[in-house]
Amino acid sequence: MEAQIDIEELTLEAMEVADLDEVLEIEAECFSNPWSRRAFKRELTRNRYAMYLLVRKKNKILGYIGAWLVLDEAHITTLAVAPAYRQQGVARFLLEEAWGRFLNLNIKQVTLEVRVTNTAAQNLYLDYGFQKIGTKEDYYQDNQEDAVIMWKRIAE
Q1: Strand ranges (DSSP E) for the chain?
Q2: Domains and CATH numbers, the chain
Q3: Is 113 a catalytic residue?
Q4: Which among 22, 27, 43, 113 is annotated as catalytic?
Q5: Which of 64, 48, 46 is nearest to 10 (CA)?
Q6: Coil, strand or helix: which one is 22?
Q7: Annotated catalytic residue: which of 52, 64, 85, 125?
Q8: Which pLDDT belongs to residue 130?
Q9: I need a surface site. Which of 48, 67, 72, 88 has the fewest CB within 10 A?
Q10: Is residue 96 annotated as a catalytic residue, yes or no?
């Protein structure tokens, strides 16, 4: 694992179709049922409610976050950090940066789903102030695993 990342070295950018080769590598490393190039491309080019951001250190993509912004609610659709850069503040950086954008867009609440077995992600979200508000049974298509529904109100 690399040394702790200096947050000052990170840059945030809007994800573009040209980034998808690197994004798909991270996606395959992080998820048992990864999104396809087609799914990401559709989000980036056709979904007017979508916001996808990525974080780079120099020219290397370390992670990304996606959300749908509908009325005053954001729904986080994905958050991934390349395994070599986990536990170094990258996910928190992505959440903080997305949060700033949510505030600027007058978003009032944020929701997401996370696998019941993904305790690391659940703990990150709990530390960030999310609450567990329910479950969706058989949510994940690859193994019918349940999802924990998490929610957070943005301070007004």
Answers
A1: 10-14, 50-57, 60-70, 73-81, 109-115, 131-136, 147-153
A2: 7-153 (3.40.630.30)
A3: yes
A4: 113
A5: 64
A6: helix
A7: 125
A8: 97
A9: 48
A10: no
